[in-house]
Amino acid sequence: MLRLEGVVKSFGGKRAVDQVSLVVPAGQLLGVIGQSGSGKSTLLRMINRLGDPTAGQIRFGDTDVTALRGRALRQWRARCAMIFQQFNLAGRLDVLTNVMMGRAFHVPPTRALLKLWTDAEKAMGLSALEGLDMARLAGQRADTLSGGQQQRVAIARALVQEPEIILADEPIASLDPRNTQVVMDALLHINRHFGITVICNLHSLDLARKYCDRPRGPSRLRSRRPARPCLGRLLNVLAASQQGDFPMFTRRLILSTALAAGTLAFAGAAHAQDWKAKYPELVLAVVPAENASGVTERYAPFVEYLSKELGTKVTLRVANDYAAVIEGQRNGSIHIAGYGPASYSRAVVTGVKVEPFRTTINNDGTVGYYSVFYVRADSPYKTIEDLKGKNLGLVDPNSTSGNNVPRFVLNKLKIVPESYFAHVTYTGSHENAVLALQQKTVDVAANWWNADDDSNLSRMAAKGLAKKDDFRIISKSDLIPNSPYAYLADRLRQAVGRQGPRVQGGRRQVLRRRRRADQVHRLAAQAEELKPAAAKLT
Question: How much is the pTM?
């Protein structure tokens, strides 16, 4: 909870902020309304401690923010992210590097200065961009973006700080109506889905009414310019509780590959006779190979099937990466999850109590898929050996076909990617990897493939996002066991483990009974065998 008590800020003999007292409960979205020069920005800068109050006290939980100095003050600024009206991006740097600067609070200064980010940190940045539909521009210079795009980059930079509160200082002041809506929708999404408190300075009362509600009374922000009647003296505070009928992912969903405690954590294991009463709604989380468009429609048959077979509501959640799925199942906020083989193994190795119960069947009846390397059809590259010194595009550190199997293939060729290629980039999704290759950001990209008419590329072609003839495969892996669906073993075994018939249909929608998922079980057994080695590494 943020609490302001009698806060005053004076400039010379004039008060810009006069005796402001305010309480902001955790997880609320607060709109601050007033004319330019009325003290809104000054108020936010004092909360962030970019400016010191003349009098009064600012507290966040048990922390006296006004008393912080040195290291403690820097830590507070990491917890309290700031989004500026003028974006404050480094135009000569690419989008991802600008986002990663938000991690500077969490790493040694030398690492931040030299931009030595780990793969996990880069994946975090790409996940934040993906959530704002900006991952496709990760390699583009920031000064080539539109105003709305730059502001979304600034929001992503704030997110990777892992803040508990975000202060947005007139984030839409220089944006057109369309980008205004995009940015405000993003802030609302962050507040309601990730539980981050947001305080946003606005000029428009209509926007405040749309995105915030529950108006509060007048305050004492003062204009440093001559006052005009009815202007510059009011602070209209509107708060929107983070509410809704759905379970909410915490801020760490896309930020640090570790979720905080979820809002649907349950105590005790369910018994057969009463588990439905304890679980009136189950959350199914998936990480789609493509971007968000069409995901809900494509997974609708599976969600309907689960709801029918389990006799309780199943809600689909589209996660940003496999780390979010793993940690969501660890803390109980995700009850059923779709994994890749590698991410499932990682979940088991790191102690998540999950059990696979279904896997997908391809249209031809097989249970498996492949990892491939694509190059552009007009490129001269015929083999991996032709690509030394070029740029490699991978998908996600926990992706089977987009990272782990490609690295295994390269290892068999005695190739260390980071030294063999000029750059290794995590693009954030399978679709983004193809787009990066299409835009010549990378020279070769990893992806999943099952058949000419059943691949991520064929799906993109069907949506008009790419042309299959523009790409060709130069390497294909051995068969990979199909991706498992897993439930929380200690809570839902009785509910899910005994349910009936399999469904007929296409790949990624058709599910096989657990007794036919031998490959997945072997993978789980192998993961168990790796636990002692993993423990030594941690």
Answer: 0.44
